[in-house]
Specification:
Blueprint: H1 2-23, E1 30-37, E2 42-50, E3 55-67, E4 87-98, E5 105-116, E6 122-134, H2 140-155, H3 161-172, E7 174-175, E8 180-181, E9 185-192, H4 197-222, H5 229-248, H6 251-258, H7 263-266, H8 282-295
Antiparallel strand pairs: 1-2, 2-3, 3-4, 4-5, 5-6, 6-9, 7-8
Helix pairs in contact: 1-4, 2-3, 2-4, 5-8
């Protein structure tokens, strides 16, 4: 059972690695593709593009780990793991930080948590995940298409899913100390078990593919858009918001740290180039006001 689940996530991981590599148009890009093991049990594969033509940096991570005590950041509080044989957690997480400020940052993750009984059987299990988009210099048409493709996918399973998942995303990706959302949303689901395990894996795969197809459309359309120094500076400062959310509020980051995960892989989601600048110029304030008007709006279709 565990090997079959891992195979599903590995296939997702491989497809996204290949697609992101194709976005790079030069041969001398820095690519790390590390297979690693975790002393406490399990391991993974961390794939990072650094200082590329398209990506400032991106990370596509697969992990499958085992432990005896479920970390507090695991997304279920209903299960007592102490009476079980431990837990199995596996999934794929993706973060992209493009060079061009007209191409949004994106994030996706899909995951499986299982509470182990005997002989690799699960006495409890659930899936979670989703994806969201963080533009800096946004285009309304891209945002609408991003949400519309998610709705179309989810409506094929249940017409109630999109409304719930998109509201979950808006609520989760908040930066309370900034009174801002991280971006324009997407979908987010947790502690989900509407299907059996086999159909859940089909569902997870469809989520990952919808994210990838939607993001590649935007990336291809915007990657050659000309930008100036003020727009680039704006992107670097606004990336600071992304770093703040991931380090302070993100449950995935917390789970990785609490489960004694591989630090290099956990923090590979952070942008390579980012700025915190006290005094902002007029150009920055104009761009920020335009962006805040966009990210404060509910784009749910």
């Amino acid at each position: 059972m565990i090997k079959n689940l891992e195979s599903n996530f590995k296939n997702i991981h491989t497809k996204i690695k290949s697609s992101f590599t194709e976005l790079e148009e030069k041969n001398n890009v820095n690519i790390s593709d590390d297979v690693w093991e975790r002393p406490e049990g399990g391991g993974g594969n961390t794939f990072v593009i650094d200082n590329g033509n398209f990506f400032s940096n991106c990370a596509v991570n697969f992990s499958s780990i085992y432990g005896k005590e479920l970390p507090q950041a695991a997304l279920s509080t209903k299960t007592n793991v102490s009476s079980s044989n431990g837990y199995q957690a596996m999934g794929v997480s993706v973060i992209s930080h493009p060079n061009n400020p007209y191409v949004p940052t994106s994030h996706m993750n899909v995951r499986f948590f299982g509470i182990l009984g005997k002989s690799e059987n699960f006495i409890d299990w659930w899936i979670g995940g989703g994806y969201d988009l963080t533009p800096f210099l946004p285009f309304k048409e891209d945002i609408i298409e991003w949400h519309s493709s998610a709705k179309q996918l989810l409506d094929g399973y249940n017409e109630e899913y999109y409304k719930v998942f998109s509201e979950n995303c808006n609520n989760y990706f908040q930066i309370p100390h900034r009174s801002e959302r991280r971006g324009i949303g997407g979908i987010f689901f947790d502690n989900f078990r509407d299907f059996d395990i086999e159909k859940s894996m089909i569902f997870v795969k469809s989520i990952a593919e919808c994210y990838l197809n939607s993001y590649l459309k935007i990336a291809t359309k915007r990657k050659n858009h000309e930008f100036n120094e003020s727009e680039k500076n704006f992107q670097l400062i606004r990336r600071g918001r992304y770093a703040e959310f991931n380090l302070i509020y993100d449950r995935g980051t917390a789970f990785g740290l609490q489960s004694k995960g591989r630090i290099e892989s956990i923090l590979s989601s952070l942008p390579a180039d980012v700025k915190w600048q006290y005094k902002k110029d007029k150009e920055y304030n104009v761009l920020e006001n335009k962006l805040l008007d966009v990210i404060k709006k509910d784009w749910n279709v």
